[in-house]
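Subject: sequence -> structure tokens, single chain

Hey, anyone have a minute? Need the predicted structure for the following. Not urgent.
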Amino acid sequence: MAEPNTGRAAIPRATRRRAGAVLRPLTRHPRAVALLRRLAPRSVRTRTTLAACVSVAVVMLAASAVVMLLLRVNLEHTVETGAREETRALSRLAAAGGLTPQLPLGPGTDFIQVVDAHGKVVAQSQNLTGRPALAPTGVHEGHRTYNLDALGEKHDQRVTTVTTATPTGPVTIHVGASLRTADTAEDITTAALAALSTVLILTVGALTWRTTGRALRPVEAIRAEVAAISDRGLDRRVPAPRGDDEIARLADTMNAMLERLEAAGIRQRRFIADASHELRSPLAVLRTQLEVAHTHPDPKVRDTLVEGALQDTERLQALSADLLLLARLDATGQSRAEEPVDLTDLVRTTVASRSTDPHPVALHTSVDITVPGSPLWLSRLLTNLLDNAQRHAGRRVTVRLTADPVTGDAVLDVANDGPRIDPGDREKIFERFTRLDDARSRDDGGTGLGLSIAADIAALHGGSITVRDTSDGVTFRTRITAVPRG
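Reply:
Had a minute. Here:
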């Protein structure tokens, strides 16, 4: 069998190498790279649409190639089967000595030629009358190639060649089967697949462009709203689309962040205003005392004024230290130290160091408790609670450390027998610069930051502070998550 070369050759390798040699320097040139980057789509919508179209195009190209290959193989197999049947029939006829000079053409057969061992044509179809015997001109794709220009046809041929014995000697039978139907079917299928692929790619591109635009419209609204929010407009919120998809969750997260920023801004402005007020009063008093002491002629009065100035200086120093600690706590945020702290030993050491306090402190601990955190800050938490208890206690202060029987959390109670706190003020006392008895707190040297610092330290360690009434006073209860026991 043989098939003529139809001229459908792939791009030569040398041509591809020359094209690559031309394009490769362009990719290395800075201006070419910059141009390619500028031409690259920047929009997510455009990139998504292009990616969808390219993906569909690749899939359709691969599918079309498979379809065309299967179609071609099937059609050629059908043609070859018909040619082989025609060849077997002629072989049986030749073996019986029934060949005639003119042979009829069967369906799908283009020509027939029978040649004897000496190269003489002994029988042929009418369209090859007077033509010499076919001679191979080469090998194409594993098949012999024959010169069929005598037929005046430009379509492909599949030539089946069989040698058989006859009463007058062996003969070679050539049967040429036309691939005109296969070529026509291939062309029609190629055009149909190209049209279908084009329509499908355009449809996918349009749907992707529309769907992506609708999906990204809320994102653009969120971006525009966030861009319009300034440090003075933190009360604004981004539009939240309906549903529970990723964009809706993004909007909810952005609004939650804006709420935190707004709360932090309000807290910061209130803190700055309160700090300015708290610093302005002692500084004014200190300056007045020093000016009077500087000009007063009586040494005793000057000593009294200087002593008052020293007290105000100590108060300013304590206030500055508390403000710096609050700034550190605010900067720390939610990151908590994970150093194991022996809370029982820390409580015992802190209480023992306060032996000179105006009221005795009774300590009750029965278990060893370890918590993750910072020993310096936990000590400051207990110190602030003890300072508050000492300031308001009548005669005694009690510290009790226990473990919650259910959760295992550390429970630290600091109680005093002073006046109780109204339920409406139990949250307010933990705000910065809050004094329920402002005059007495100033006289006792309180800054109004002790309980706020204690609450922030407890929150930083995953705990909380609550106020509870007792039969003889008030208790500040601190809960801190303990290290699980192994």
